[in-house]
Amino acid sequence: MAVIEVKNLSKRYGDTVAVRDVSFTVESGEIFGILGPNGAGKTTTVECIAGLRAPDSGTITVLGREPRDRALRTQVGVQLQESELQEKLTVRESLELYSAFYPDPADWRRLAGDLGLDEKLNTHFGKLSGGQKQRLSIALALIGNPRIAILDELTTGLDPQARRDTWELIAGVRDRGVTLLLVTHFMEEAERLCDRIAVIDHGEVVALNTPAGLVEQTATEDQTIRFRPSAPIADELLTGLPEVSRVSRQGDRIEVTGTGNLLHAVTSVLAVNGIVAVELRLEQATLDDAFVRLTGRPEEEHSS
Ligand SMILES: Nc1ncnc2c1ncn2[C@@H]1O[C@H](COP(=O)(O)OP(=O)(O)OP(=O)(O)O)[C@@H](O)[C@H]1O
């Protein structure tokens, strides 16, 4: 069952087209990722879904309702980039205050514990680090026990351990039946957490698939093998194999790129010629490769 439906969404700011004819649906219980470089239109898209911005054209329904419908307030939790609370509010006060807005709030002490905030309960918001503010905003998005949580740049600003802890928390939230819409530009995050990903570039959806499906869809040469041959070998032995598309050499190492059962084909021809592949490594296409092929740029250029 679709819980979010976006049809032909477009939004511009003056002369800038931020989102152009974007359509996708998010199914109940899934973690749906929106992945794309900076300025691709991810935040604008989720702000329209959260009812915080009005689209110029297109339609959005959330749990069958228009995004600004008041009935959604208790059903949709939103964590947006750079959300600011009052400087003087402590973590405890913020959690208690937000709990009071909802008919069936989550146990805020437990959420604070899960997000590593239990030692910061008496700290003022203004005195929290960027990562702690981030974790508090995730807690506040989840405090109403929402059916849908929209999380923008979930783990930006978190250290690697905090990022992994947050992934675990999010997977646990999904296991409780919450549908999650995540905005990210971290490839590893998208790959680990998301059931499906919409890749957005220049305001348009350029691909929509499972992480594995995106890799498969964009893989041109799906594997590369690197090794050092135990004895000299002529390139022709390898280039003659139907699985092999390219052979290159770096010093005493050989790199073979190709498709199909490349590893078996290469090791068999080596064996027939009495050669052993030393320090053999097999590399397969990753979501990073898919991202570069879809957007034409590496992820790092766009990470902030
Ligand atoms: N309030 C605004 N006024 C004018 N232009 C805006 C506004 N918000 C966003 N934009 C522009 O719209 C485009 C899409 O921005 P958006 O924030 O949706 O992208 P994003 O994919 O979320 O980027 P990031 O990863 O950097 O957060 C960008 O060109 C941005 O500069």
Automatic annotation (TrEMBL):
Keywords (alphabetical) are: Antibiotic resistance, ATP-binding, Cell membrane, Membrane, Nucleotide-binding, Translocase, Transport
Q: Where is the ABC transporter domain?
A: 4-227
**Chief localization:** membrane
A molecular function (GO) term = ATP hydrolysis activity
Record keyword ATP-binding present: yes
Which superkingdom, per the lineage?
Bacteria
Q: Does the keyword Ligase apply?
A: no
Query: What residues form the membrane-spanning segments?
Result: none
The protein's location, in the record's own words, is:
Cell membrane
Q: How is this protein positioned relative to the membrane?
A: Peripheral membrane protein
One GO term under biological process is: response to antibiotic
Matching Pfam families, A to Z? ABC_tran
Its cellular-component GO annotations read:
plasma membrane
What is the protein name for this chain? Putative ABC transporter ATP-binding protein
